[in-house]
Design goal:
Layout (H helix, E strand, L loop, with lengths): L1 H8 L3 H20 L2 H18 L9 H47 L2 H6 L2 H21 L1 H21 L1 H8 L1 H11 L1 H27 L1 H6 L3 H53 L5 H43 L16 E10 L2 E11 L4 E5 L6 H8 L7 E6 L2 E2 L5 H5 L2 E4 L10 H6 L7 H10 L3 H4 L19 H15 L3 E5 L7 H14 L4 E5 L11 E6 L2 E6 L1 H7 L1 H11 L1
Parallel strand pairs: 3-8, 3-9, 6-7, 7-8
Antiparallel strand pairs: 1-2, 1-4, 4-5, 9-10
Length: about 575
């Protein structure tokens, strides 16, 4: 049964075991709810039976009844408390584990996965869907199973006592559930439609927030608001449709359940006239029948919630079943040379890298140049295994990086990309990301080498100044220098730089180049730059065009043999 729960609800093994425990405890709780009517019926048979001449053999004093009631209350309290702890604590632990599991899996997914998925959708799955998963699991799933089990037990008891009355009371239950189930496809369709409409609203909201500057500058406020509210109205309309479909199904099934009271009344009256039962049994069955249907109606409502859960589980399974990047947690390398051997890579049907082969040697600067879209940035990301290649090999010191865990591999890389990512924290904390446990002296030294001390001195709280979301309080050049300081602090043997000095003025670029020249000694450096003067002193220049190597060599060699290189130099000087 554990395997069924794991597969059906995308649960962990511990979660599946805890679900079984929750179902068991809730079944016991449901059965204890039979104590009050049993005591009540016993009391009625004993005292009202005298009036009807149906006095039974059971004779209990009032004190015994009081004792039974007190005992019943105590038992029901402790069972309810036991069930609450097992149910809700287990659910919360499972949803916490699910969030952690999804986060850990996302860490190991290649960047190509995130390129295909909407980030708002992923964020909603991580937060909104898991919250919905938590709510449904705490209020629906265990209740469905436990109520089904307890109802089956009670049904057997009723049938064994009097099969005619039992059958007349129970026949409506399977038919009601069947009728509700027939509408499941329609319900699921409307639920999926609502989820899609809701995601469109969140996507549009996030997009508009990110583009608020452009919206204001082009006076697009009214149009933007209209588009957003149109999507919001559509989502509301679809939600109402979803509630209508499930509500009609639940109401119709609930009405059908009430027919059981009618059949019990008719069959019971016939049996009473025929002398097969007495009036107390007749009344007891009427009351019992009404109480049996209450949990069934709850199950129907919970089954409607399960349709929502199916959509959530589907999205969770999609992430959990995606192939992740795995590998060895250690490397046996001879050096830090990076060798590309006939490498091919593409996005879906679009080819980006086509048979590239070269070696970036340790202690040398290898520059990647070429027209926009030639594959420069892609090669640097392939070297760090942000994506897995389609064909060929990338070796680090003779070790195939495709067989190394990305976290292990990235310990050897310091990366400075053109698109700088900073956190809403202090300058110090943003630099410290480069090296866990770095001392203040090390952080300050890295900041000075990256020429960050100049703007840090102007900040109100110095190096402890909080820079806002993605460094909004800093200029482009300051953000770039901060990312370089982070890489300097890490001091990894391999350095990847994609337009690392693109946002710097000429003076600061020269200062950074001096600092980097000290940093890169005896390291493997792969640099991308459009400013030709920044790569002329590179030990090796790889000229890319349409995902292939057009030419390879030093600046002097490429000047002699490559027309494209000569053209790029002339363009940079014009």
């Amino acid at each position: 049964m554990d395997k069924y729960f794991i597969k059906r609800y995308a649960m962990t093994e511990i979660g599946a075991r805890n679900l079984k425990k929750s179902i068991f405890s809730h079944t016991i709780l449901n059965l204890t709810k039979m104590f009050p009517p049993i005591i009540a019926f016993t009391f009625l048979f004993q005292y009202l039976g005298k009036v009807e001449g149906l006095e039974g053999s059971l004779k209990l004093s009032n004190y015994v009844y009081i004792g039974l009631i007190i005992t019943m209350i105590v038992i029901m309290y402790f069972v309810a408390r036991w069930d609450y702890v097992r149910l809700y604590n287990n659910v919360y632990e499972e949803t916490a584990s699910s969030r952690i599991d999804l986060a850990n899996r996302m860490k190991k997914l290649p960047l190509s996965y995130f390129g295909k998925r909407d980030l708002t959708d992923l964020a909603t799955t991580m937060m909104g869907d898991i919250t919905l998963y938590e709510e449904i699991f705490s209020h629906a799933v265990p209740h469905i199973y436990s109520t089904s089990i307890s109802t089956a037990i009670i049904a057997l008891m009723i049938l064994s006592y009097n099969w005619k009355l039992g059958a007349s009371a129970l026949w409506v239950i399977p038919i009601s559930i069947l009728i509700f189930s027939l509408s499941k496809r329609k319900q699921r369709k409307t639920v999926d439609k609502w989820i899609k409409a809701s995601r469109m609203v969140f996507d549009d909201l996030q997009e508009k927030i990110e583009q608020i500057g452009e919206i204001k500058s082009y006076n697009l406020e009214e149009k933007t608001i209209k588009v957003f509210f149109d999507k919001l109205k559509n989502a509301t309309k679809v939600k109402l449709e979803t509630e209508f479909v499930s509500g009609i199904s639940i109401a119709f099934a609930g009405i059908l359940l009430k027919l059981g009271i009618v059949t019990v009344s008719i069959v019971g009256a016939g049996m009473l006239i025929a002398g097969e039962i007495n009036v107390l049994v007749y009344i007891a069955f009427l009351l019992l029948t009404a109480s049996i249907y209450l949990p069934i109606e709850s199950i129907l409502a919970f089954m409607a919630m399960i349709n929502l859960l199916d959509g959530v589980v589907t999205r969770m399974k999609e992430i959990k079943t995606m192939p992740i990047q795995e590998g060895k947690s250690y490397m046996n390398i001879k050096n830090y040379d990076i060798e590309f051997k006939d490498v091919y890579f593409g996005y879906d049907d679009y080819s980006v890298i086509n048979g590239v082969s070269f070696t970036a040697k340790q202690g040398e600067v290898t520059a990647l140049i070429g027209p926009s879209g030639s594959g420069k940035t892609t090669l640097t990301k392939l070297a760090a295994r942000f994506w897995d290649i389609d064909k060929g090999k990338i070796l680090l010191g003779g070790e195939d990086i495709g067989k190394v865990d990305p976290e292990t591999l990235l310990k050897s890389f310091s990366i400075v990309f053109q698109d700088v990512v900073l956190f809403n924290a202090s300058i110090k904390d943003n630099i410290k990301i480069g090296k866990k446990g770095a001392t203040d002296e090390e952080i300050i030294r890295a900041a000075k080498i990256a020429r960050c001390d100049e703007f840090i001195a102007k900040m109100p709280d110095g190096i402890n100044t909080v820079i806002g979301e993605n460094g909004e309080r800093l200029s482009g050049g300051e953000r770039q220098r901060l990312s370089i300081a982070r890489a300097i602090l890490k001091d990894a043997p391999i350095i990847l730089m994609d337009e690392a000095t693109a946002s710097l003025d000429v003076e600061n670029e020269s200062l950074i180049q001096e600092a980097l020249s000290e940093l890169i000694k005896n390291k493997t450096v792969i640099v991308i730059a459009h400013r030709m003067r920044t790569i002329r002193n590179a030990d090796k220049i790889v000229l890319l065009n349409h995902g292939k190597i057009e030419s390879l060599g030093t600046d002097e060699e490429l000047r002699e043999k490559s027309d494209l290189y000569q053209y790029m130099i002339s363009k940079s000087m014009s």
